[in-house]
Structure formats: C-alpha cells, structure tokens
Amino acid sequence: MPAPLFEQIAEGIRQQMAVLEEPREFIPGKTRIPLNVPTYGAPEVIEALDSLMSTWVTMGKKVKNFEAMFADYVGPHYGIMVNSGSSASLLALSVLGLKPGDEVITPALTWATSVFPIIQLGAVPVLVDVERDSYNVDPWAIESAITPRTKAIMPVHLLGNPCDMDAITQIATEFGLSVMEDSCEAHGAEYHGRKVGSFGDISTFSFFFSHHISTIEGGMILTDNEEYVDQLRSLRAHGWVRDMSNRAEIADNNPEIDPRFMFAHVGYNFRPTEIQGAFGIHQLPRLDGFIDVRRGNAAYFNKALAPYEKWLMLPSEAPHTRHAHFAYPFLVRENAPFSRNELMQYLESKGVEARPIEAGNIAIQPAMKKAHYHVSGSLANAQYIHDQGFFIGNHNGVGPEQREAIVSYLREFFEGK
Q1: CA distance 152 to 132
Q2: What's the pLDDT tens digit per position in 291-329?
C-alpha cells in the first residue's frame, strides 16, 4: 500500500478510536461497571494493520521485539512469547524435566490453567492451603507437603499480590526444587523492589483481554536458563530446530534430513502471531500507568470501606511489596449480617459486575474428579475464600465517578443491615 494511503487510513483510525475513547456519561445505578475494558487504542490497531498489510502475520520481528522489551521490564534475560498464558504454563513445566508421577506443589486457590498443565504432563499437583489475608500460597504448607517425589513449586501471585518469595526460594534451595512462578495476573508487581517473575527458575505471564495489558490472547515465558530457552523455542513451534542455538550441530548429526524440516523435540504449535507482537510493543509502555490507576482505586476503596471491616476483610499490601491489583476482592467475615451472595447480587443489580475468586478451591471442581492429584493438609482458607470471597473490576475504566458510585452502593447496602 502506498505510504500516503496508509497514513490516511491510520489517521482515520486515530480519529475513530479517539471518538470511542471519549468519556461517556455515567449514570449511577444505571451505567454498567464491567470487570474489564479494552486497554488498547489507535497505536495498537495501526501497528496490527501494518503487519496485515506487510503479509508477515505469523511470529516475526515484532514478536521478538516484544519478547526483549518484556524480559527487560521484568528482569530475566530471555522472553519467549506464546499464544496464551495457559500455553506458557504448559511449556514452562515441560522444560523442568517432570516425569509421570512427579509432584508439583501449588495452591488450591487458583485458576484452572495453573493446575491443569501439571496434570496434562502426567505429573501430580499437590494442592496446599493459602493465607487468608493475602490469598497466596502459605509457605509453611509448602514445606509440609514435600515428599521424595516433589520436583517443583508453583507459587501463584494471585490477583496481582506478590507471594512471599523469600520463604519460597529458601524452601526450594533447601530441598533442591525448581520454582515456576505463575505471574499471569501480576504484571509489574514487585517484591523487595524486584518484579515478580524474576525469582524462580522460570515464570509465566498472560496477556489475555482482561489482564493489565493485552495482546488479545497471548502469553510469555521468562527465564535466565539458556538450555530452557532453546527447548522452549523449539517446543512452541512443532519441535523444529530453526530457532535453536545448536541447530547446526543437530543438522550435522542428521545429514539425511533437510534442516529446514528437522524436529528435535515432540513439540506443540503455540506460536503467537505478529498481530499479538504488534499489540505488545505498544501496550508495555502503558503498563505502569495502568497499575497506578489500579493502585489508586484500591487505596480509595480501602479507605472508604474501612468503617465496614468488622464485616469485610479488605485487600492489603504486605511491606516491601508492590501490589498490582488485578481486581478488587472482598472477603465476607463469619459474623457479617449478610451473605457473600447477597452482597454480590446487590452490586450486580446496580450494574457492578462481580465474580467469585478465580476457580475457588480447585480441589472441589468437577474436572478434578477425572484427575490424579493430592491434597496436603487442610484447605480451610482456600475453602473459606471459595465460599465467602468475590471481586469486582479494577482497571483503567474505573475512574472517580465509578469508584464513588461503587462506594455509595456499598454504603447503602451496609446501612440497610
């Protein structure tokens, strides 16, 4: 396409997106407050169009650029982009050398794609309890769950709240275990000044539509381990050798096979598209601004709702951490004169979208009846949060009008009790 024509189209996109991004009238009690809103604008759309017009639409330079940018942002040396966060977890676990029957310790309060990849690899998830105040895995429950079959720990930084990585890495070092950080909901969260996703042997992130930044679908694996990198790049693309550092050596050892179609691993097809890379390179510079909005909203809600803490447990930020606030959760206390469902339904009636905390206690999900897994210790806190917890959206679409309205709805509900 001639450059002048492309620029005319790009300018039309800028104008149209500007119209879509204009603030709309907010009517308390009537205007819906959703769990998420789009994070992208004209730059992402134009970059994606550029890829489409170039006809290079599978992973290429833009994907590589985003991989390098995201790795630099978080800290590890290498980033490997894939088509989703769940694919990222499956690939990350694949390179840890897990064998059928090996055990991976992970929290019972989590999302399905943190646990299912363990099962899909023939390993055994060992579900342990979480801390009620942080929703994150209890480090002492991890230590109690270790057996001779334990090979790895998978902490999940749930809802953007950093886990206690000092305790977890200490346990892993003491027992010789790998650590895979599930950071899918924790973009930009920090523990002692370091980004989560930089502590473990390997880590994963998701760029699904509802996350802090989005490539529509998409995921990322980060690591400093060069051996893992070679395997990951091969596994995401059928197992071929094209992106491996030692591809020449493998080709020399197999001269009867065309190196362009040589397969070194039993791989998958988890490649991202160049469209996803196009989104990522424009989304990442906006991430810290999005996090600032979320943190500001959480601080506002915590202060406004402090008088009701006798009935609610509100989210908190542990010392030396930076909470990324994927959502804003509520935990209804035992003595509250209302149920979790009553409060959720009331907010929904006002147009505030509300959802349970993730998959809740994954051990009681029907899919787990078809899986081989273990439970270590009590899952009392995971079950309590399953029964009594829920969250509402906290994102760049929640501004002063929306958060003031949410607080007014809650005050109205509590005063009626």
Answers
A1: 23
A2: 999 999 999 999 999 999 999 999 999 999 999 999 999
The single-letter DSSP state of residue 109 is: B
Structure tokens at 128: 């342990």
For the whole model, what pTM was predicted? Answer: 0.96
DSSP 272: P
Q: For the domain bounded by 49-285, which CATH number is listed?
A: 3.40.640.10
Catalytic residue among 157, 187, 192, 211: 211
Structurally, what CATH architecture does the domain formed by 288-415 represent?
Alpha-Beta Complex (3.90)
Tokens of 153: 């720990």
DSSP 151-193: EEE--B-GGGPPP-HHHHHHHHHHHT-EEEEE-TT-TT-EETT
Query: Residue 156: what are its φ and ψ, rounded to 5°?
Result: -120, 120
> Does 320 qualify as catalytic in the annotation?
no
> What single-letter amino acid sits at 141?
A
- Take residue 36 and report the two structure tokens written for it: 């998420």
The Cα 354–Cα 36 span in angstroms is 11
Q: What is the pLDDT of residues 98-117, one digit of tens each?
A: 999 999 999 999 999 999 99
The domain segmentation of the chain, as residue ranges, is 49-285, 288-415
H or E segment and range at residue 141 = helix 139-145
pLDDT at 247 over 90: yes
Give the orientation angle of helix 226-235 with respect to helix 85-94, to 10 degrees.
Answer: 120
CA 183 to chain centre: 5
